[in-house]
Design a protein that fits this description.
The protein is built from six helices and eight strands; from the N terminus they run E-E-E-H-E-H-H-E-H-E-E-H-E-H. By secondary structure, it is α/β, with parallel strands linked by helices. It has one domain: Rossmann fold. An eight-stranded mixed sheet has the order 1-2-4-3-5-6-7-8, sandwiched between helices. Helix 1 links the parallel strand 3 and strand 4. It is globular and about 40 Å long.
């Protein structure tokens, strides 16, 4: 991967209101940004996910802004840590992603930028459903090891070009993604050879970042 120029991105905290609650986020926008990408993380994760931060860093190096956000409040995270249920509440997660999309539309540095969504695990389903609820806003979606099947009937309504990235050793998730892709218009599936669900193998996450950046540059700019 090419070196990243961190000095090019102006970074600030974000407080995103969804209903009566707020979740935290971090917005970083490079000078002359050509688009902005919302990250919807997966199970038991947060805006501090090292994998999402790695991908976000690469996107900023390609001239794209990033919004890393929490999908759950601190109290909800404590509940989910005990029960493991909220991470599968796609309706709740979708509302948080939609709130983030609406928040970006109100910010001076992002309101004129094309928007994409990057989702991992269950966050991918939330990103896809959000794309159907804000079709004018979301221009592209990328899923990393995602569960697009959990988007249910919304899959048929997704119009944003969608890239599904799955690890070659993640066989159950490959099949879920193949079946979901058949229900979508404009979706492509890329299998990263030898990679497991978290793309922890050498070079695997770099490949995810490269694929995601190329997809977003193609459709957001």
């Amino acid at each position: 991967m090419e070196p990243q120029d961190h000095n090019r991105a102006v970074e600030r905290g974000a407080r995103i209101r969804s209903g009566d609650l707020e979740v935290g986020g971090t917005l970083a926008v490079p000078a002359g940004a050509r688009g902005v990408v919302v990250f919807a993380h997966g199970s038991g994760s947060s805006r501090f996910s090292p994998r999402n931060q790695f991908v976000a860093d690469h996107l900023r190096g390609r001239g794209l802004g990033t919004l890393l956000m929490d999908l759950l409040t601190e109290e909800e995270e404590r509940i989910d840590a005990r029960t493991g249920t909220l991470r599968f509440d796609i309706g709740l997660l979708t509302r948080r992603v939609v709130a983030a999309l609406d928040w970006l539309a109100r910010q001076d540095e992002t309101r004129l930028l094309a928007v994409g969504c990057f989702g991992a695990s269950t966050g991918a389903a939330a990103a896809l459903v959000a794309a159907t609820e804000r079709p004018q806003a979301v221009r592209a979606v990328v899923s990393r090891g995602g569960r697009p099947d959990l988007a249910g009937q919304a899959l048929e309504a997704v119009r944003a070009p969608t890239l599904l990235i799955v690890g070659g050793a993640d066989e159950a998730v490959i099949e879920m993604n193949r079946k979901a892709m058949q229900r979508m218009a404009g979706a492509e599936l890329v299998v990263v050879p030898g990679a497991t669900h978290l793309f922890e193998e050498p070079g695997a996450l770099e490949e995810v970042a490269r694929l995601a950046a190329s997809w977003f540059v193609r459709f957001l700019t």
